[in-house]
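Morning F.,

Quick status update on the modeling queue. The single chain you submitted on Monday has been processed. Sequence for confirmation:
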Amino acid sequence: MDNERILKLDPDANIIPPEELDILRIKMGKTKRKEADWDVIKDILNRHDLIVMEPEKKDRRYRVYDHVMSVDGVLVAFTNVEDCMKHVHWLNDEDGVPGRRFVVGTMPFEQVISVAEHYRRDLLIDAVMDSRRRCLMYLPATHEIKAVSMLR
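Structure tokens below.
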């Protein structure tokens, strides 16, 4: 599948630059994170936009809340293009719909959090379903961010 066809972001989008993404991944890769690690993670997220998506055509498998797609009842967003693309490919493979297209854009982190709180939906950030890598989960009920593993 041609990534250019699926994913076109505004060149001025405020997504996390590679050097800060590396820092975020290092902090997330730790087995135990100190409060200072969480401060760095939150600072990076608060200063940038997340990548959000929704099906190009209405799809009964997914609900969309203010342009943030929900998969199995959980909102999903991404810090980087690569993880978003992996998720698109995983969704298409999982559903047996090769070539299905998604509208992809960016939204400030705080706005994505507001959507999660408004609709009372947990939010997964960088959920790569074919990986054992940790991702972030925002829990609107307690207003906290946690690290979780996506074991499949």
